[in-house]
């Protein structure tokens, strides 16, 4: 577990605290000197957990650093602690989420621009505590806090462990293929199940944020269906559903998973999204594509 040279208890008056770009626990109250001390220590905590997460996922650079959080406009990190452990307490996990403007394929293979998509960006529980329910505990805290539902979340290049996590806890298996690094589950575009997607509106309602476009994405890629293996495993075979003709144009752009086959090095999606360097404005994986 992540132990520190300082006592973490003042930073963690609650088991789970959240941190945004000010690098302070959401519970923080103090004067300027205490503020500087807290941000310095919190930066150390975030950098350490981000590094552990990267190592755990086999990434060559962390997705999460204090510096990146400081520069972000709309990201939140949730940190899970055990202050009763040892003299200084320990930090056991990290969950980073944010909202992003994404170009996404819907289930019919049409390209949509979805603004402020809830996104799971980095998730880590210390190896010594994995598979003990802590990940679910932290994730549920975040869902309640953000007013999100799992099916409305996009996931930035999920690991196999995280795909298993979504399957086990939320029964989510069938994905909607995308041309970027994000994984969506079937139901993402369903309006009736849409409350709790960040701002309490469905994507279609969110400030007119979803547009069905005539983007060349759809013409280039058609409907790339990535969920076949997962769908087979789930035992669902579309039953009486007629196959969507667009699915015959299948282009296997990327399997769902962080370690999948290489994605095309040049795609219209990348060209379209290349200009959006601003944090939270991305059609690709802003968190991970820059660092791998
Ligand atoms: C967008 C991204 O962040 S992708 C990267 C996700 N993070 C990682 O892969 C880092 C390493 N893994 C972890 O940190 C954790 O396993 C997490 C965050 C994915 C889940 O946290 P946990 O505390 O393990 O989750 P929790 O105990 O609530 O649920 C366990 C379930 O998660 C899945 N899971 C967790 N670890 C594994 C594993 N080693 N192998 C396969 N499935 C796993 C399984 O479905 C497991 O259920 P099971 O034990 O009955 O098979």
TrEMBL record:
<dbReference type="Pfam" id="PF05301">
    <property type="entry name" value="Acetyltransf_16"/>
</dbReference>
<feature type="region of interest" description="Disordered">
    <location>
        <begin position="230"/>
        <end position="292"/>
    </location>
</feature>
<dbReference type="GO" id="GO:0048666">
    <property type="term" value="P:neuron development"/>
</dbReference>
<feature type="site" description="Crucial for catalytic activity">
    <location>
        <position position="57"/>
    </location>
</feature>
<comment type="similarity">
    <text>Belongs to the acetyltransferase ATAT1 family.</text>
</comment>
<protein>
    <recommendedName>
        <fullName>Alpha-tubulin N-acetyltransferase</fullName>
        <ecNumber>2.3.1.108</ecNumber>
    </recommendedName>
</protein>
<keyword id="KW-0012">Acyltransferase</keyword>
<dbReference type="GO" id="GO:0005874">
    <property type="term" value="C:microtubule"/>
</dbReference>
<dbReference type="InterPro" id="IPR007965">
    <property type="entry name" value="GNAT_ATAT"/>
</dbReference>
<dbReference type="InterPro" id="IPR038746">
    <property type="entry name" value="Atat"/>
</dbReference>
<dbReference type="GO" id="GO:0019799">
    <property type="term" value="F:tubulin N-acetyltransferase activity"/>
</dbReference>
<dbReference type="GO" id="GO:0070507">
    <property type="term" value="P:regulation of microtubule cytoskeleton organization"/>
</dbReference>
<feature type="domain" description="N-acetyltransferase">
    <location>
        <begin position="2"/>
        <end position="189"/>
    </location>
</feature>
<feature type="compositionally biased region" description="Polar residues">
    <location>
        <begin position="236"/>
        <end position="255"/>
    </location>
</feature>
<keyword id="KW-0808">Transferase</keyword>
<feature type="binding site">
    <location>
        <begin position="123"/>
        <end position="136"/>
    </location>
    <ligand>
        <name>acetyl-CoA</name>
    </ligand>
</feature>
<comment type="function">
    <text>Specifically acetylates 'Lys-40' in alpha-tubulin on the lumenal side of microtubules. Promotes microtubule destabilization and accelerates microtubule dynamics; this activity may be independent of acetylation activity. Acetylates alpha-tubulin with a slow enzymatic rate, due to a catalytic site that is not optimized for acetyl transfer. Enters the microtubule through each end and diffuses quickly throughout the lumen of microtubules.</text>
</comment>
């Amino acid at each position: 577990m992540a132990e520190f040279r300082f006592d973490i208890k003042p930073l963690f008056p609650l088991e789970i605290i959240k941190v945004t770009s000010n690098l302070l626990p959401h519970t923080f109250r103090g004067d300027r000197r205490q503020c500087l001390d807290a941000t310095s220590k919190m930066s150390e905590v975030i950098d350490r957990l981000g590094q552990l997460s990267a190592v755990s996922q086999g990434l060559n650079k962390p997705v999460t650093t204090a510096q990146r959080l400081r520069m972000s406009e709309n990201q939140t990190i949730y940190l899970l602690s055990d202050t009763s452990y040892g003299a200084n307490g320990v930090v056991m996990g990290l969950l980073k989420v944010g909202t992003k403007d994404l170009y996404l394929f819907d289930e019919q293979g049409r390209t949509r621009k979805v603004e402020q998509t809830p996104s799971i960006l980095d998730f880590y529980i210390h190896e010594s505590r994995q598979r003990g329910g802590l990940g679910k505990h932290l994730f549920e805290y975040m869902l309640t806090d953000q007013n999100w539902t799992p099916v409305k979340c996009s996931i930035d290049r999920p690991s196999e462990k995280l795909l298993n996590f979504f399957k086990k806890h939320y029964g989510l298996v069938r994905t909607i293929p995308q041309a970027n690094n994000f994984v969506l589950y079937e139901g993402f575009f369903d309006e009736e199940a849409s409350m709790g997607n960040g701002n309490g509106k469905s994507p279609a309602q969110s400030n007119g944020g979803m547009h069905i476009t005539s983007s060349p994405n759809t013409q280039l890629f058609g409907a790339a269906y990535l969920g076949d293996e997962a769908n087979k495993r789930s035992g669902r075979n579309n039953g009486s559903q007629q196959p969507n003709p667009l699915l015959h144009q299948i282009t296997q752009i990327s399997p769902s998973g962080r370690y999948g086959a290489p994605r095309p090095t040049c795609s219209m999606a990348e060209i379209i999204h290349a200009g959006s360097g601003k944090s939270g404005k991305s059609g690709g994986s802003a968190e991970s594509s820059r660092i791998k």
